[in-house]
Structures are given as C-alpha cells and as structure tokens.
Amino acid sequence: MAIQQKDRNFLAVIGDEDSVTGLLLAGIGHVNSQQKKNFLVVDAKTPLSKIEETFLEFTKRKDIAIILINQHLADLIRPLVDDYDQAYPTVLEIPSKDHPYDPEKDSVLKRVQRIFGE
C-alpha cells in the first residue's frame, strides 16, 4: 500500500529546549506505537551523531509532513540538510531565541533562488 500525502499527519522538530517546549505546548508532540517521538531536544551535551541520526530518521518516516529544525542546528548538519531534496517531509529552518534567522543559510531559499536564476 502506497503512503499517501494525507497519511502524513505530524510535524517533527529538532531544536533547543525553548523551541521544542513551545511547540510541544502548542500540541505537536506525539509518540508512535514503536515509542518513537517526533521531537528531539538538543543541548550542549547532544552528540552531533544523534542530531544526524534523528534528522535521517524523520526524513524516512511516512507519518511526518514537516520537519522544523532550528537554523543553528541545521548548520551543524548542513551537508545532510542541503542534500535532502524530497517534497515530503518538508524541512523548514526556524530561528531560535538565541540565534536569529539568516535567509542566506536557508537550504530551501537557496533552492528557490537557483530555480529562478538569482
């Protein structure tokens, strides 16, 4: 059975504690039947390999429509983020309280600019 767009019901988030907490309070939190969460709280002790592993896991899940990732964390795994080119789940880089959004770094914006020849 093919996974349909309508089967993608969840947002996922990879972010700092404030970002993830805010989104969980907004109601995005979910734990599936395999006890897999749709969020990862990243702090100074989180190994880079865990961020990479979680990003790859989220991109392969068929129940996730959008992955939100703090831009400063996306910078840590920039090659993975830039190489990801699927429509679903869509990856959106978001600012955090301590790191403002920089459109020059956003992989989606870079792709749009290439398409329009900018």
TrEMBL record:
One of its GO terms (cellular component) is fungal-type vacuole membrane. Its main location: membrane. GO terms for molecular function: proton-transporting ATPase activity, rotational mechanism. It holds the Pfam family ATP-synt_F. It is a peripheral membrane protein. It is found in: Vacuole membrane. Keywords: Hydrogen ion transport, Ion transport, Membrane, Transport, Vacuole. It comes from the Eukaryota. InterPro entries: ATPase_V1-cplx_f_g_su, ATPase_V1-cplx_fsu_euk, ATPase_V1_fsu_sf. SUPFAM superfamilies: AtpF-like (SSF159468). The keyword Transport applies. The keyword Transport applies. Belongs to the V-ATPase F subunit family. V-ATPase is a heteromultimeric enzyme composed of a peripheral catalytic V1 complex (components A to H) attached to an integral membrane V0 proton pore complex (components: a, c, c', c'', d, e, f and VOA1). V-ATPase is a heteromultimeric enzyme made up of two complexes: the ATP-hydrolytic V1 complex and the proton translocation V0 complex. Subunit of the V1 complex of vacuolar(H+)-ATPase (V-ATPase), a multisubunit enzyme composed of a peripheral complex (V1) that hydrolyzes ATP and a membrane integral complex (V0) that translocates protons. V-ATPase is responsible for acidifying and maintaining the pH of intracellular compartments. This is V-type proton ATPase subunit F.
